[in-house]
Amino acid sequence: MKTLTGRLKAAPTTAGRTWLQAFRPAFIAAFAIASLSAQAPAPAIPPQPASAFVEPGVLPKSWMTGGPKCMEQPSFQVHEYNPNFFILRESGCIHYEKPFLYLIFGRDKVLLEDTGAGTIDTASVVMDLIAKWQKRNNRATPPQLIVTHSHSHGDHTAGDKGFAALPNVQLVLAKVDELQKAFAIKAWPTDIVQIDLGNRIVDLIPIPGHDVAGIALYDRQTGTLMTGDSFYPGRLYVGDAEFATFAASHQRLVDFTADKPVAHIFGTHIEQSNTPFVDYPRGTTYQPEEHVLELTHGVLLELNDAIKKLNGKLDRVVLRDVILSPRAPRPGS
Fold first, then answer.
1. Contact of 316 with 327, CB cutoff 8 Å
2. Backbone angles phi, psi at 145, to 5 degrees
3. 168-203 residue pLDDT tens
4. Domains of the chain
5. Beta 264-267 vs 294-295: how paired, if at all?
6. Closest CA relative to residue 8, chosen from 46, 58, 50, 54
């Protein structure tokens, strides 16, 4: 059911050698697709890196979408980016949105972003992964699970009910007041706060605009930025009334990442095809030639420049990897 990668042992370095020299291609070859339960115990969570060099990981050559044979597909593709960072993609056979979820392990706690779309049992998949991680790390007890959301839309919160009654689980609802309470955010949306998972810090950056409760997460250990529906290879929906807020949030991401290593930027959907400037129509289930999940820091900057050129007036902007897409006013708004 699960597509999982092997883990990469830390590359040894010596005085006078650069990180790139130490990180030999041979280590890359050590990555292999393997079952999580069959792997040897992973090392304990190391201390936070004090330099710009981050813990690497591996992405799959392609992601499961929604076909062509739905009866042969699991509800989630589970990919081990590295031993303590997992990416889950819901099958398009379950829901055409095919959202991505992220599971990040620290020494004491594990953080899940989003719970899926449609009729989906996300909790059993996630709790099974946690149990296997616990066994692999020879832990007597599982880490506490914190469930949060990139934003409040239903294709990212549908699996919440499965977590609500579970022990050792903190379910943070996708509401501004709930986020402020759970993560001690005093001034929304300007305060950036830290989530301490135990020798692993994840920064939470409020980014309302696409949605009032939108957040981004930055994992310092891997240098990955998770941006929800506010930035991903696809259509970035925003309304006229929210555009100023969206622009300010995007600038907040640019400012936050200015002095930080960014290995990848992960959103929660893929709607672009692998043909530049071309997206799949809304509602597409099977996307055999879709764009990769990861975006670069350069694309983040490119979109920021495009937003500035609009001078506060929302308009459709088609870039190579992303599309700024004006959203029609909701009924009654």
1. no
2. -100, 130
3. 999 999 999 999 999 999 999 999 999 999 999 999
4. 24-38+55-326 (3.60.15.10)
5. antiparallel
6. 58
User: What pTM, to 2 d.p., does this model score?
Assistant: 0.85
Spatial distance between the Cα atoms of 268 and 153, rounded to a whole number of angstroms: 12
CA dist 109 and 215 (Å) reads 19
> In the numeric block, which tokens belong to residue 147?
């469930």
- Per-residue pLDDT, 330: 57
- Residue 120 near residue 131, CB atoms below 8 Å: no
Give yes or no for a contact between 103 and 110, defined as CB atoms under 8 angstroms apart.
Answer: yes
One-letter amino acid identity for 151?
H
Q: Which residue has the tokens 């990981």?
A: 57
E strands in 258-301? 264-267, 294-295
Helix (H, G, I), strand (E, B) or coil at 127: helix
Could you tell me if 118 and 158 are in contact, meaning their C-beta atoms sit under 8 angstroms apart? yes
From CA 11, how far away is CA 72, in angstroms rounded? 38
Least confident of 18-27, 261-270, 318-327: 18-27
Q: Which long-range contacts (CB under 8 A, 24 or more apart) does 66-73 make?
A: 66/91, 66/92, 66/93, 66/96, 66/98, 66/285, 66/286, 66/287, 67/92, 67/93, 67/285, 67/286, 68/286, 68/288
